[in-house]
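Recap from last week: sequence in, structure out.
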Amino acid sequence: MLARLLRLDTINLSMCADPVMAPEDFSSASDEELVARVCAGEQPLFEIIMRRHNRRVYRTVRAVVGDDREAEDVLQAAYVRAYQNLGQFEGHTRFTIWLIRIAVHEALARRRRDGRSVAISGPGLAGGFGPGRRVE
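Predicted structure tokens:
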């Protein structure tokens, strides 16, 4: 089911439990509402979450891995991990931040597995990272 879920072109939003709300009405739903509904069994709504955040998450992952094809693989793995752990999202931060953290962790893990390091720099990075510091 999850493999089908991640293929955006095969998802039929009419499968959702609430037939009163048309698919286009979901575009105004908050991330928290969509997460709650996906957790309640409306898995096809995960497509909206993916589409809503895809560009930002892809760009972030691409900046870490440095390759388009690898970024797509990492992005898919991050969506699978996010979907599997959706029930753990507590809403303490914005959903976008939670999703990007998952994607960045996935990208860094892939870089470590491949024996590569990555320079992490930028304003406001948590955990003591600074300009030019390398993560192994």
